[in-house]
């Protein structure tokens, strides 16, 4: 099926500014949003997805430029093999104020991380942490064990700090209000002050017997080891969500979520661009002229590259399938090797003569006079 023009989809001119594109998208999102639209929800979702795809491409100056140059085909590789899906959408934040609390919006984006609208009432806070990984981990995926610092309400006393959560009594000083009123008479006026109860420190309750598990603090601090799954093709900046491993609220709202931000350590010889990897190799002049083989360092090993005779400097060789895996697909990108050619810096006199015969037959090169003077004196 032929794709609609993304500018038409958003109803903006090709010269529209970033702000115009954004407000057009926000206007349409309100209109086509499945929970608001009068259309069949399935149709509405398709429309919403279509405008979101157009916005994803046009909101980014880089992909907008590529789209302007080469049309839809030029931005296709930005998304997975099945085309645009919600995982590819990075601008959920641009709608958060409009739709953040909307159930459809939460269902679509709740698993993707990036904003707080997913939090229900009474839920514990989310925990965010950063996980550093070697770049090679993006090849195969990995399941590292990570330590999550925890500071949850004590389960034994339900966060009260009192044994079993029941060894607690209403403060006799303030009758549970946590406040004490003092009335002072000064001449004809009465001064009433309200202050924190000194006996219960404003809690209104007094612990009769502290919880033996948490020592009365009501908190359980420590670490939790959990295994997380980093998929093949994971990229820098990707955020993995582990539901229910955030801070426990201590109440019926349950736990928040854990968000793990991935940071990949770069490799000195590899530059990554999505699924493709770039590297360089230096060819001796003879190999470039006559052909041969060179061994190059790949992402996680070595490969032998056949060099055809007459290879020009800056020639790029593409090793298909030697790049990074495509996220959520079995296939891999390419390793692109740029061949530099190294010219010899020093030549012996006889090499020079031989090369002159080959490269400059019958001609007198510039500087040849000085060359012959040198030879007469030196030999
Ligand atoms: Zn009190
Ligand atoms: Zn406790």
Helical percentage: 25-40%
* Overall spatial form: elongated
At CATH level 2, the architecture of the domain at 1-118 is Orthogonal Bundle
Query: Count the strands?
Result: 15
Query: What is the CATH third-level topology name of the domain at 1-118?
Result: Helix Hairpins
Strand content: 25-35%
Gyration radius (Cα, Å) is 34 Å
* CATH homologous superfamily identity of the domain at 1-118: DnaJ domain
What small molecules accompany the polymer chains? zinc ion
The CATH C-level class name of the domain at 1-118: Mainly Alpha
SSE order: HHHHHHHEHEEEEEEEEEEHEEEEHH
Oligomer: single chain
The number of helical elements comes to 11
As laid out across the biggest beta sheet, the strand order is 10-11-15-14
Describe what this molecule looks like in 3D.
The chain is built from eleven helices and 15 strands. It is of the alpha+beta class and 379 residues long. Among the domains are: 1-118, Helix Hairpins, CATH 1.10.287.110; 271-342, Urease metallochaperone UreE, N-terminal domain (HSP40/DNAj peptide-binding domain, Sandwich), CATH 2.60.260.20; 349-378, no CATH class. The protein has a four-stranded mixed β-sheet. A three-stranded mixed β-sheet has the order 1-9-8, with no helix packed on it. Strand 4 (179-186) and strand 5 form a beta hairpin. Helix 2 packs antiparallel against helix 3. The termini are far apart. Residues 110-119 have low confidence and may be disordered. The structure holds zinc ion (2 copies).
